Amino acid sequence: MKQSLQYAKERLADGSSVWMFPQGEERHQEERPLQLSSGATHLAKTARSISLFSFYYSFGHEQQPDVYIRTRAITLPATRASEQLRYLTDAMTRLYDDVRTDAVEERVESYCILTTRKEPLPVKTEQWLRAIRS
């Protein structure tokens, strides 16, 4: 863990971006309360800016998922590490919950559509089955 944090710190010092799971590992998107690791605030102190990202997968009215992605910039308060961790945890929770609400309520006007479905999944499934049978 120390090596990973040191590597990330060096990348930040070089001006690179660092993507991380602030919980210290991949966790289910609905798990609450979020439990962030102290490494998240440790690295945040080194970063020039902090952008939180939330990816939310939802099966609305299709058999294929919609993926909602939102980012939010934050600034950590100049306080103790424990307070910074609480602030970061609250900010991440709000972002995750906002994106989940958008998906459930089908509020897509704030999102850019990156790809569209060409064919419904049942059509593709039938094509695959025909190919397998031949």
The average pLDDT value, as a whole number, equals 85
Report the total helices: 4
Gyration radius over CA:
19 Å
Strands across the major sheet, in which order?
Answer: 1-2
Shape: elongated
Give a short account of the largest sheet: 2 strands, antiparallel
Q: Assign a percent range to the helix content.
A: 40-55%
**Structural class, from secondary structure content?**
alpha+beta
Low-confidence stretches: none
Order of helices and strands: HHEEHH
The termini sit apart by: 51 Å
**Structure summary, number of beta strands:** 2
* Relative strand content: 5-15%
Please, could you describe this protein's structure?
With 134 residues, the protein is α+β, with helices and mostly antiparallel strands. Strands 1-2 form a two-stranded antiparallel ribbon. A hairpin with a 7-residue loop joins β1 and β2. The mean pLDDT is 85.
